[in-house]
UniProtKB/TrEMBL annotation:
GO terms for molecular function: cysteine-type deubiquitinase activity. The keyword Transcription does not apply. Residues 163-490 form the USP domain. Residues 435-473, 500-519, 591-611, 1079-1128 are annotated as: Disordered. This is ubiquitinyl hydrolase 1. GO terms for biological process: protein deubiquitination; proteolysis. Its EC number is 3.4.19.12.
Amino acid sequence: MPPKRTRRKSPMQSALNAGERLKRTKLTDSRVYSAWGWVGTEVSDASQITKQHRLATYGLSESSLHSLCPNRYAIAKTPTQEQGSQNGDGKVAAGELEDDVIVISDDETPTCSSKTCRTNPYCLNYLGQEKWEDEAKAREAFIRAASLGETPRKYSRKPDHPVGLKNLGATCYANAYLQVWFQDLPFRSGVYRCHLPEDEQFNLEASPIFQLQVTFAAMQEGNKSAFNPVKLVESLRLRTTEQQDAQEFSKLFMAHLDTEFQKQADPSLKTLISHQFQGSQTYVTTCQACQYRSERSSDFLEIEVTIKNNSTLEERLAALLESEVLSGDNQYLCPRCEALQDAERHVELSTLPPVLHFSLLRFVYDFSTMERKKKLGSRKRRRKGDSQGKNMYQLRGILVHKGASAYHGHYEAQVFDVQTQTWYQFNDETVTKIDSLGGKTLNGTKTGSKTNKKANAAQTSPPATSEKSSSDRPIYISSKDAYMLVYSRVNDARDEVPAAADGQAVSRPRKSGVSLPKLPSRAATTVTTLNESHAAVCKAYEDKKQQTLIQFDELRQRIMRIVKSWNVTYRGQDCVVASRQGLESWVSRHLRAPPASEPKAGSAITQDDQRYESRVAWSKQPLEPNQDDGIVAMSQVLCEHGRLDPSKAGDMKLITQAAHQRIAVEDACRLVPALHPSDVCADCVATLFDEKLYQIEHPRLVDQFDKVPALGEDEPGYWISKPWLKDWRLSRPKMHVTSQVDPPPDGPDFGQDVKCEHGGLSANVTARRRISSEACLLLQRIFPGWKPLPTDAELCPVCEALVHISKEDKREFRRQAEEEKARLKHMHDNALNGNTALLENVPCAIVPAQFIRAWRQWLLRPAEVPRPDRLDNSLFICEHGLLALDPNVNSDMDTSAVIVKRTDWATIEELYSGGPLIAVENTGSRIEHELPVCGPCRLKRRSTFEVTEITIRILAAGTPTPSPESYSEELTTGRVAETARPSTLLTYGSRKTPVLRQSSRIRRVKEKAKRRRVTITSAMTVKDLKLLLQEELAISVIVQRLFLRGQELLDTSATLTSLGILSNDLVDLQEQIEDVNLLSDSDNEQTEPRRKARPEGPGFGGTLLSGLSSSHLKSQPITQPEDSSTKSCPACTFANEMDSATCTVCDTPIESGVGL
């Protein structure tokens, strides 16, 4: 079957489409479209280049096709006029259709766009003027560039809105309790009524009572949305980076306040804590035999109740008060019966305080793991509680602990505001109104706004069984995070918290009519000062903003006036050449924001505080516009000669001389240097001309060469380098260097392919090929100095003789290598393995390890690798004639020296020159040596290095932590078992080595740690080493602990040499295993083996709450411990490494460099 014929392609369309505009410039010579179209046509030598040719390379000649685009910002925008018909009267000829007309235009104008005009030097329309054209966007950018930043009114307090408290790192537990106590008006009033000494010796600023007065006063009368209680925290000496237990803080702080209140003269203050928060309970034991009743009373500040899942507060309170039967081994010794009797024991609540605290025991001690854990069982609590039928209590506050771990987490508070009669969520400085304490109503529908869903930590649900109507049914709120419940006694109906039947609090704030306590004078003065300072900052911001806006209006008008009149309107006009990047920089220089400064890490002040404090300092400075040095460089279009670079012609723009002068005068900015079209660089144009001409001429010459007929088998010709010819025939040869001629075929890199070092024909026939005489003449015209060898030239006789001799030498080298290997078999098999166990009680000598390595490499390839010439032991002898290394220290001998038999040393002396002899002997426990060790020279030898290797010993799990007491130098004889194994290096003519016998004594000393050799430099730091180990060993930096001679390397910024790390030193690496059970939500017993108990922190030890008296405040300065190597998580307050992007515990993103 004949093959199918291919379909003939349709001819290319030569005519125009209907309605297409004829562009007659395309029909002209194509060289007008190219800046280099004159190369090879009008000009064939650099000396023929004229000024017009140079201007054409920049697109600045009079015949350039670059259009003079009109200034789109100087032309008023009008509707586009409809185009008239082609025949002038709007009608077409008879028999023609309107689409059949071909438009021929003599005044066609190229379309102006940012893409097509990017390289047009006459178009100035797309340099950023649009940023100034839109006044609103320009104003916003200018204000941003003026560093006005956010308005300080952002931090102002909303009317009738509670004040939040700043978290200083991990002080959320204190903030939560302060919010609860602040809403207790009798307690707040008592704090205000405390009288403090007014003598000069009393340190008022260091008094916790005064700082508590200031804190409450700022929360009551302050005009900022959040108050920073840093001075209160400092007065209590609390560690801001440590998470503490909120319940423990409450007890200790109340005890401290009670002690201070006892010093007051007012009797009501002396009993304020006990009257407001303290109740009494009685432990009653009743003998079942004689009904004898034994009672023991005690006071309490809070009632502790245990947690059981899905239980109500009433049920757990009833479980606390229910009777316990004492029987069996736990019988009661009745004083009346004078014998052990069965009895009942229960607790009675004797008196209840006005403010009742219920502590939910969420944190329990797990004896299986010897750790504290958090119980996540849900607890239902009532909005109203009735105790003994006569005390009505209403829920006023809920303390919430968020997080699954007992060691980390975040405390928040939900508190009822007595002034506005509204519930609020207090998350440190963030205060949110709560529409409902629960997320669901009784019928299951959702309530609350979207903004409060995350803030609501509780959920409302009906009781399990109830026969009451919905209006009388008690309201329950369920939560898995509630930590403390605060109830307040209701005296009458007016004190009750208004609530709907579904548990929703009244969402509209209303005044309760309560009278707020009066502020103490000194605290009021402090708050007034803070309020005035904040008001002054707000006013200064507004004044500066107004000045900035006035400056913006003037500047915008000035910039727009210049950019509307800076275009060149005709070719040859007096103008200045500027770079596109420089003009863009000038247009937007007033709209660029200055670089932001990074906050210091490790500070207890939050980021908002830093911004606010910088705003205070900024408000005191005079207004200055965003100015740079007033110079915009045009270096983007300059060549190495300081003139216009033709290769950067696409980045050049022309502006009028008048506009250049207005920029310098009106805007105080100089565009330097001021270059004109006449400042073209003749040298650069000539260089590029040669390259352009080469790109035209070279393919033509290659084409001529390829057309020369190939050389026949018997025809005479010439030899040429095959790599050179292959490269030269490329359209862009790799050998070609810009502005340089190509190397000839016998150049330095290709001459050896044809000629040998003796000037004769090379014996390597694969690197050369034959060409004909005609081809040779063509190449000689291009490279006149090339003198090729004819194809009938004889091979170099010297090279032929060397080839014959080389074969004989190789056989001799192999024979010599086999002989030496047989004579030094023990050294070959064991020298580099460190196996000194087989050399016990045998005279030995020290040999450089580098000599052994070079010798073994020669044994592998004796014909290719040079044989070692001599053995030099002088590097082991110091200037004092003593040993510069210790043969008993493994790090000294590891890579620099080896031990061989004395008989092998004698053979080496016979075969090689060198010395001197360093005699040693292995006694089993140590290596004896005749020459003593020079300590200073040994240390100098190991500490002087630029690049060296060290050994990282990775300690196995369960290995004791290294310490200076347990550290000892690793002896050379101590690693025998690890290295005592047969050689695995295969050499020329080697056979399998039988397995060496190892004694039980050797096996007992084998260590379990892994080792890894790493290369370090003298400039590396501990952090660099940890990053290297993370890459090499896949062990995260955060779990690495490095030890040098038993001392942990804690300073990550210290260099390794400053810490005393020596060449071939040993560093121990211990991997910290993280306890994954810390975040477990399960309450089930763990089946895994018991882990080591987590060490408890110091708690409140060392703080004022631990028992320090106020008298210590005069002699001891208040210091705030800071840890600059960590930063706290804003969610769970865990102390993370400074380079952590997210929290290790909760994966919350952490802002770089900010300690929250």
